[in-house]
Design a protein that fits this description.
By secondary structure, the protein is of the alpha+beta class. The chain is 33% helix and 21% strand.
């Protein structure tokens, strides 16, 4: 694994951050996943603030990864395969601007990679509707409250986890078996 200064950061929102956190925690090359908020106009928002839909923030995960083990495109391929990037401000029953599909790029290379992959997915008509994922510059990240961290692992029997997260994880594990942390 790369030393910390060689790690890269990806910041992504695709609905509830618990879902993305659970997926990326199992991906080989990912060193850490932190749930939080970004893209809004309120400093240091709380979960309750963000849930009002008035702060402008999205629920996101910030992923630290080893680019020698997985590249940024690989991170994005998982992102587009584990949420619906065609529904504005919605993922399933989670509705509101905080659930928007968003990629917050940290540099020009990430911006270009995201744009190229979206163009490719659109050309290949991978989805039945146009991709509405926003690609915006990264500005600030506010970690979510402690009880949101490692949520699925700590609450796997909870109803939302069983009904929403578990099926996403199952689909992810099948599709990306060779990219799992434990080698599939």
């Amino acid at each position: 694994m790369a030393v910390d200064d060689q790690l890269q950061t990806a910041t992504l929102g695709g609905g509830c951050f618990w879902c993305l956190e659970a997926v990326y925690q199992e991906l080989a090359g990912v060193v850490s996943v932190t749930s939080g908020y970004t893209g809004g106009h309120t400093e240091a928002p709380t979960y309750r603030d963000v849930c009002t839909g008035t702060t402008g923030h999205a629920e996101v995960v910030q992923i630290r990864f080893d680019p020698d083990a997985i590249d940024y495109r690989g991170i994005l391929e998982v992102f587009f395969s584990t949420h619906d990037p065609t529904t504005p401000d919605r993922q399933g029953h989670d509705v509101g601007p905080q659930y928007r599909s968003i990629i917050l790029y940290h540099d020009d290379a990430q911006r270009a990679t995201a744009a190229a992959l979206i163009d490719e997915l659109e050309r290949e008509a991978v989805f039945d509707a146009p991709i509405v994922t926003r690609v915006e510059p990264y500005a600030a990240f506010y970690p979510a409250e402690a009880y949101h961290h490692d949520y699925y692992r700590q609450n796997a029997e909870q109803g939302y986890c069983q009904a929403v997260i578990a099926p996403k994880l199952s689909k992810f594990r099948q599709r990306f078996r060779e990219r799992l942390r434990n080698g599939g």
